[in-house]
Amino acid sequence: MYRSTIVKSLIDKNYSIIRKTSSYKILVPTNCQQQHHWFSSPGLLGKVQEMVGDGVGVEPITRILFCGPYFPASHNYTREYLQSHPFIQVDDVAFDDIPDVIGNYDICIIKNMQLNSDLISRTKRMKLIMQYGVGIEGVDINAATQHGIKVARIPSDVTGNATSCAEMAIYLMLGLLRKQYEMQIAVKQKKLGEPIGDTLLGKTVFIMGFGNIGIHLAKRLHPFGVKILATKRSWALPLQNSHEVEASYVGNGTYDDLVDEKGGREDILKFASRADIVACCLTMNSKTAGIVNENFISSMKKGALLINIARGGLLDYDAVLHHLKSGHLGGLGIDVAWTEPFDPDDVILKFPNVIITPHVAGVTEYSYRQMAKVVGDVALQLHTGKSLTGIEIVN
């Protein structure tokens, strides 16, 4: 009744509401001059849109919530992709404001937000929770299921995300092998011919977690002349959506021509003891959290390198710090950290054999444009009641 009265009042006064990107412009005719007022507050904007939705002949709005300010290209590219579809609203909302406005949205893109049962209980019209990528460990999937909300990830292989992450892993390996920090010091000190670096040639690389990223990493490491060890939860089942590596697929999901020796979880310490480089490509869950612990790193060869482009929680912080201090760990290359954003003054970053990047392994123009298209297409499908495609629903 309240909203209908306001909408009627707007119509009687010849108000018009025009949508432009993620804001709404209210045009107020007067006897003198038309006044323009812009509103971008998700709360106020939601109220205005609810009023519009009650109007006769007005198409309802499907609303997408991007959680927090980080990874800005995600919401910017999605908004750009959907700019010709005024009935889809894309908002990026500060973490502190999300509890108050989450009830106004149909789709939630979590990014690095922890979407717990309390937040999910505040949803009123939510139909889909998605990650702008593959990691959905921050979502309480049981709570979402109880509220009738689907939870989905974007397969990394078809968007180029897996390729981007694999390239970043190689970047970190090369940076540590060629002693990036020491090279920068040598330039500043006007030295030539030092430091003495190392090559990937002849190295043994242990890929822990042979999913899409692991496969793309193995494929790109082969030309460097390395030996590859890999572990996977189950080698019996083929991976889905691995279209770009089908040339290497031998029909049973093992990708034998990419791996010199394959194993399961029971083999991780054995493989760690033989590898010059360990690359973590695991999914983060209750079984893998802290899997690279004191026992694991102690099993690694002295001077071996540790690379993590998956999730920071896979590594035990204290164990990593201890083995950097002792010199047992030859180098650490991480794109993900235990807390994000990572403290730039953390003691781990004081070591010259540590390289950290700000969670950008998958953040490339190609992969983010592709993922924006997936999110945009899913929003359009949801809006029109069509079946959802291009995503992997997990509940």
TrEMBL record:
- Coiled-coil-forming residues are none
List UniProt keywords, sorted A-Z: Oxidoreductase
Sequence ranges assigned to domain D-isomer specific 2-hydroxyacid dehydrogenase catalytic in this UniProt record = 75-388
* Entries under Pfam families matching the protein: 2-Hacid_dh (PF00389), 2-Hacid_dh_C (PF02826)
* Keyword presence, Oxidoreductase: yes
In its keyword annotation, does this UniProt entry include Oxidoreductase?
yes
User: Which InterPro entries does this chain map to?
Assistant: D-isomer_2_OHA_DH_cat_dom, D-isomer_DH_CS, D-isomer_DH_NAD-bd, NAD(P)-bd_dom_sf
Name the source's superkingdom.
Eukaryota
This entry's Gene Ontology molecular function terms read: oxidoreductase activity
Q: Where is the D-isomer specific 2-hydroxyacid dehydrogenase NAD-binding domain?
A: 171-361
Q: Which PANTHER family match?
A: D-ISOMER SPECIFIC 2-HYDROXYACID DEHYDROGENASE FAMILY PROTEIN, FORMATE DEHYDROGENASE 1
Q: Which family does it belong to?
A: Belongs to the D-isomer specific 2-hydroxyacid dehydrogenase family.
Descriptive protein name? D-isomer specific 2-hydroxyacid dehydrogenase family protein
Native source species: Abeliophyllum distichum
